[in-house]
Design a protein that fits this description.
The structure is a homodimer. With about 575 residues, chain A is mainly α. Helix content of chain A is about 65%, strand content about 5%. The first copy, chain A, is built from 26 helices and 8 strands. A 6-stranded mixed beta sheet of chain A has the order 4-3-5-6-7-8. A two-stranded antiparallel ribbon of chain A has the order 1-2. In chain A, helix 23 links the parallel strand 6 and strand 7. In chain A, helix 3 packs across helix 18, helix 6 runs antiparallel to helix 14 and helix 22 runs parallel beside helix 23. Chain A is elongated and about 100 Å long. The termini of chain A are far apart. Chains A and B meet through helix 8, helix 19, helix 21, helix 22 and helix 23 of A and helix 8, helix 19, helix 21, helix 22 and helix 23 of B.
Chain lengths: ~575, ~575
Amino acid sequence: MTSTSPFTRPLKRLLPIAAWLPNYRKSDFSGDLMAGVVVAIMLIPQGMAYAMLAGLPPQVGLYASVIPLIAYALFGSSKTLAVGPVAMVSLMVASSLSAIAVPGSPEYVGFALLLALMTGVLQLVMGVLKLGSIVNFLSHPVISGFTSAAAIVIGLSQFKHVLGVSIPGTEYPWQMARELAFSLLDTSGATLSLSLAAIAVLIAFRKALPPMLARLGVSQTWRDAVARAGPLAVVVGGTLAVYALDLHQAHGVKIVGEIPQGLPSLTSPQVSWEATQKLAPAALAIVFVGFMESVAIARTLASKRRESVEPDQELFALGAANVAASLTGGYPVTGGFSRSVVNFSAGARTGLASILTAMLIALTLLFLTPLFYLLPKAVLAAIILVAVVGLIDLKTLRLVWQYDRYDGVSLLLTFAAVFGLGVESGILIGAASAIALHLWRASRPHVAVVGRIAGSEHFRNEQRHQVETLPDVLFLRIDENLFFANARKLGDLLINAVAQRADIKHLVLVASSINHIDAGSLEVLEDTAHKLHDAGVALHISDLKGPVADRLKRVEFEKHLGDGRIFLSAQHAWEALKDA
Amino acid sequence: MTSTSPFTRPLKRLLPIAAWLPNYRKSDFSGDLMAGVVVAIMLIPQGMAYAMLAGLPPQVGLYASVIPLIAYALFGSSKTLAVGPVAMVSLMVASSLSAIAVPGSPEYVGFALLLALMTGVLQLVMGVLKLGSIVNFLSHPVISGFTSAAAIVIGLSQFKHVLGVSIPGTEYPWQMARELAFSLLDTSGATLSLSLAAIAVLIAFRKALPPMLARLGVSQTWRDAVARAGPLAVVVGGTLAVYALDLHQAHGVKIVGEIPQGLPSLTSPQVSWEATQKLAPAALAIVFVGFMESVAIARTLASKRRESVEPDQELFALGAANVAASLTGGYPVTGGFSRSVVNFSAGARTGLASILTAMLIALTLLFLTPLFYLLPKAVLAAIILVAVVGLIDLKTLRLVWQYDRYDGVSLLLTFAAVFGLGVESGILIGAASAIALHLWRASRPHVAVVGRIAGSEHFRNEQRHQVETLPDVLFLRIDENLFFANARKLGDLLINAVAQRADIKHLVLVASSINHIDAGSLEVLEDTAHKLHDAGVALHISDLKGPVADRLKRVEFEKHLGDGRIFLSAQHAWEALKDA
């Protein structure tokens, strides 16, 4: 079974479970079982809460927590990633679907299936095409700004449940804040009290309980498990409170209501061309954000155990999970941050933990849904609220702003765009702003006139070091790759450098910091060499990096320099030109 | 009048005419007059032809050749740029307007005014905000691919006039090719004969006539003038042929028909919010393409006379010209490539040449429009066809492909996108592809293990040079800026480099090719330093560029490296670590 024949090797790459399941060690089982149970306890309330956030009936969140988890376990290269409904993706589902259907309506639920199918197919295709590196387009500050803003938007969206008020649907997040402010006077006292109690209990479970248990000598694993059981506790406590105090009938506290019992039936999303077109940007944004969140946490956890995660295989596995979600009454899923950490620290060793979680959720669907009838929505909102507060990331803003204003600007732009224009526009504007600022920076390269440090072969910036120079030779170092962002400026830059010094006969472009010259810039260099020649100045190039030099040789660029030459180093140029 | 008082200096910058007109030299007048006349002779047929290409009545092209030229002459920093209708922008006008109105209808003409207004306002605002460098986003290969494809699309769009057939409107250029193929059998013999004759005459004027005149001893200036008079000749000849042979009534050759006599009246574009939204992408694309074409030729011509062109001022002046076009019955204009070259070589010294051209066009509108009644559309189509053939640029494709596949791919992608999806999508996809390929390249940086060239302080790639190394120190040079495109790979890269060599205790990142480290990459470096530390390896950095080093100092980065250090150069690191 452990053979590595040419037949089984590709199979194991495509289907990682084929590699680990045959070699499953009994000693791993206790950890997988523990993790499976703890994650299920976390996922039952979260699944329902995130479905509510997405504007879907609570059972959809549970349906999305059965077969998709098993699909990921088959194909995923991470052994500890916990897939299922997550807050950020749920928010994106809500924002895209509410533009084309009424939340909670059958069409809305149908479109959620379609969106899961589109997301899944996109991920499968991108996985097969090995486009996993596409996440590189999102810079760290953009991700940070997006996450903070999305956390606030998610929090805002739950305030109506926390306060027990009804507000009209809004297009942009900032409008929701306004509507909430207007409805503050309608707050339901019973609902708010219940919410605050739930929040207090959730915080207590996280912060106060573990140290108490530690003093009682409870082991780390159990302390962690208890700390994560807060949501389950408030679900049970909240339901009992509604029952005991008759909060629903007598005080108008909103409850989850009837959840159909039984496993999800096979569903087929209604594929309509019109809806597909309308949902395409959302599907793309969900692929981006979902994949990013998933790979980030999967890598972090894998590196702790010196395991590895294959981004392309991850895309494929998430795609399989989303297609599974679309066929079994779910909605888009991805690897969740906090649940994966819990899965890992509760002892998950293999994907079996996820399979066990899925089986427990299935049992819940079969037997326990009647128990959720009186579950108050305010409690689910409290669970979301406490979960997302930790995502607001001011530390990165402070650090980034101090280190690099450009990065700080793209962080703030992303934040503002999410809040002002919504999550999908936000992530796109964020990505575009980071790229635009990168190009803008590249369009204004740092340029140094360099000279030789006496007695050495080192050429350094004459403004930072004591250097010697030649009277009629100017050594100019451009600290940037030469490509379209600065191609048009390049010519001006070289010509201006000479224009300021009438006695110059040779201009040496020191290319030690240039890792790439694109075709357009090459043309500019050639043009500039001609112009400089007319002004009696020869343009030389020195210190070309190997790959750049190879490429210039391919088009015989030295010939195009006229009376200019290509020198191996600035020192060689110095020797050759000092008596010229 | 030549004072440079604090009051007049800003005026002269905003209104360049205020600088040159008061100092106008009589000796410049003959050149300006000659150029003004030659360009007018060229512009009359071209203006009508390009208006037809844009789906507008012929007089609109003439209206766009009066006040907009004067507006540009007031504000433009180029003294020889010939503004007016151009092929590429006309094509973009056609493709965007035909989606929302019927070509030639009053609404269509009204939307053309709105589009000119939007283009103009955008350019004015961008000029004031000094956003001229935005054209840097378009790489040379993208521009080349776009121009070639647009030339073919323009040519295709004229074939129906050349053949004298009617084809239904199409959404994408490739569909037009299909419709044309289907309609070949309906070709009008008379129209085709006329078209071929016109094409032959146009080519003869360009290629055959100048050498003949040269042999007759005619001066260069006059030869050039005659060579450019081809369009006028075919306009006159074609009109006479229609009249003499009764081609319109008897043979169904389509004619221009009645052109209203007189100057354009003041128009006010119908500004509707809905239309503005729909036209916004087109306006943006026209700003891009129009500005690019204009600045490229203005710069080329200015540099020949050691004059200078201010991109931001150019944006402002083109904006003024477009706003003028929208107020006087025109449509979007820009600086034309071939007309500017003619203007320059016919002797234009100042903007007065353009003002004279405008006056001649105005006289034409006042007195000569009845003469164009019988002008055949096939002749105008022939003029366009001959003009755009020269824009198809296979040379750049060949050169670029040879030098750099990435650039070649973005050229071909742009070409295919213009042809398959239309001009606006084409230019956007082109720009995006160049940026994506730039990031993709940056995400896979060249990495070299470097060693010391014996007896020197130079550190070079050990695969290219004979170098000495230290047994437990690895010097790694990464030839790329560290930013979001490669931040995620950076950690893997450093760790893999060490993983392959078990005996390494120090990893020195030689940063001589790194011009910038963004916030996210800094975090990756810090994480990686910790991971390497756990594996018993210290991460050092050497050869930081001044500005990069300054920035790292600001956040006291050396402290975050753990047991790693920042060295001035690889040589310093060598000395410090060789006995460690």
